[in-house]
């Protein structure tokens, strides 16, 4: 039983890595999470609730919005930029000497508007790079959602499995406790030895301890669910589905028939996007050789504070074009291009490795699922046999045909069978969820 609890705690630790660090109140179409609220959740309900309220997913969505803002920022550099100015100048009575004539410098207001537009190769490619960065953020959202959903499914099933374990343990405790009380009565009348009662007492206490330890693990798993779905700390979580509803041979066998598609796998999508982004960076570095064209229009109006005639040499309208042609950078631009090409080559290697690793993972995870499924079937049969043996031995003990030691051994074997059964179930669910995530089903 300790092995089962350690297994559940290990899976819990994995789920906590993707959980949010705080609790908060949330409102949802599935249920309402407030102080002392009650959430009745099927597995699908829990997943939907998490998609709307999990803060890790929300932060990933904010990254998409941030990437979209960066994309528009890159595009805006190629669109017209308009600025206005307003100046006031006072020469403090200064007089300018013009061929012996003293001319007072008048004070004035100067109003101007400038519109400009710059287009260059780096700006165009930079906007495309920003778009690709947004696409990567969107893929990252999908990956984050997948991790959260997988952890919810694992925690949900572990709770159901351990709750079934508690029921089995409590049933065993009830049977042994009944036998223990019967043995105590036999000891009082001299029909049995105190040794027999002591052995049964220790066994009953041991199984009760295992049941209580399992209950504590279940509560920790409920807290994991609360964190994963974004519910408040004191929300009451009620799981509405049974173990048979969420884990059944049909869904497992159906998953085994699914084939791996690289394009559907988030890890491949992210690496493929990173490779394309590195390729675009090569183009971006080459654009440093491309000329940049700037067009501008300027309007200027001066308003003198004096009515005296003044000489204004500033034209009210100005139009211009400016072409900036890169000529020589002492090899700096060429070095940037080489560096970008090296990064692209590295990303190509990573993409090849990703495809290779995904193929290996698929084979391993399929093997794990088949093995776990077969082992679970065996352990399901084994626990039924051990339950019948324990029930039979309990009856034999009552009639004195076996000793208390033999009954204690039988209860220990049943406890081990229960522990092995739950471990096989958790292993099967873990293998199922891992393959499901790889295939993105």
Summarize the SSE layout with pairings.
Elements: H1 2-17, E1 26-27, E2 32-33, E3 38-41, H2 43-53, H3 55-76, E4 81-89, E5 95-98, E6 101-104, E7 108-120, H4 121-188, H5 194-229, E8 236-239, H6 243-246, H7 249-256, H8 266-286, E9 292-304, E10 317-324, H9 332-398, H10 404-439
Helix pairs in contact: 1-4, 1-5, 1-10, 2-4, 3-4, 4-5, 4-8, 4-9, 4-10, 5-10, 8-9, 9-10
> Helical stretch count?
10
Shape: elongated
Uncertain spans: 8-36
Instruction: Quickly give the structural class.
Output: alpha+beta
Query: How is the largest sheet built, in terms of strand order?
Result: 4-7-9-10
Q: Between the first and last Cα atoms, what is the distance in angstroms?
A: 32 Å
Average pLDDT across residues? 86
Model description:
About 7% of the residues have low confidence. The chain is elongated and about 140 Å long. The strands form 4 sheets. Strands 4-7-9-10 form a 4-stranded antiparallel sheet. The protein is built from 10 helices and 10 strands. A hairpin with a 2-residue loop joins strand 5 and strand 6. It has 441 residues and is an alpha+beta fold.
Essential attributes:
single chain, 441 residues, four-stranded antiparallel sheet, 10 strands, two-stranded antiparallel sheet, 10 helices, alpha+beta
């Amino acid at each position: 039983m300790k092995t089962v609890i350690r297994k559940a705690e290990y899976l819990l630790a994995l789920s906590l890595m993707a959980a949010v660090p705080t609790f908060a109140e949330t409102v949802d179409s599935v249920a309402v999470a407030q102080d002392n609220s009650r959430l009745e959740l099927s597995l699908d309900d829990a997943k939907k609730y998490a998609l709307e309220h999990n803060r890790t997913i929300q932060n990933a969505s904010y990254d998409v919005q941030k990437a979209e803002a960066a994309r528009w920022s890159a595009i805006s550099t190629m669109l017209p930029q308009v600025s206005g100015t307003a100046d006031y100048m006072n020469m403090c009575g200064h007089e300018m000497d013009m061929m012996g004539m003293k001319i007072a410098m008048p004070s004035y207001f100067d109003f101007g508007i400038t519109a400009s537009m710059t287009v260059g190769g780096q700006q165009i490619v930079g906007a495309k790079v920003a778009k690709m960065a947004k696409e990567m953020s969107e893929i990252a959202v999908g990956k984050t959602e997948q991790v959260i959903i997988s952890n919810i499914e694992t925690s949900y099933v572990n709770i159901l499995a351990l709750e079934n374990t508690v029921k089995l343990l409590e049933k065993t405790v009830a049977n042994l406790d009944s036998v223990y009380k019967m043995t105590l009565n036999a000891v009082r009348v001299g029909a049995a030895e105190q040794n027999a009662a002591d052995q049964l007492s220790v066994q009953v206490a041991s199984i009760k301890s295992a049941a209580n330890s399992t209950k504590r693990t279940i509560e920790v798993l409920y807290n994991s669910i609360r964190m994963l779905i974004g519910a408040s700390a004191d929300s009451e979580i009620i799981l509405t589905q049974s173990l048979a509803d969420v884990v059944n041979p049909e869904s497992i066998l159906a998953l085994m028939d699914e084939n791996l598609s690289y394009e559907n796998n988030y890890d491949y999508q992210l690496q493929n996007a990173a490779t394309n982004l590195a390729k675009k960076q090569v183009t971006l570095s080459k654009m440093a050789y491309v000329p940049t064209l700037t067009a501008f229009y300027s309007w200027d109006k001066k308003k003198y504070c004096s009515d005296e005639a003044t000489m204004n040499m500033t034209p009210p309208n100005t139009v211009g074009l400016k072409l900036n042609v890169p000529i020589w950078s002492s090899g700096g631009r060429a070095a940037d291009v080489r560096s970008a090409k090296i990064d692209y080559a590295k990303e190509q290697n990573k993409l090849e490795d990703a495809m290779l690793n995904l193929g290996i993972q698929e084979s391993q995870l399929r093997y794990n699922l088949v093995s776990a499924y077969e082992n679970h079937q065996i352990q399901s049969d084994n626990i039924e046999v051990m339950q019948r043996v324990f029930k039979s031995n309990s009856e034999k003990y009552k009639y004195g045909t076996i000793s208390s030691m033999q009954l204690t051994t039988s209860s220990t074997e049943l406890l081990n069978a229960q522990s092995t059964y739950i471990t096989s179930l958790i292993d099967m669910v873990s293998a199922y969820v891992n393959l499901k995530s790889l295939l993105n089903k």
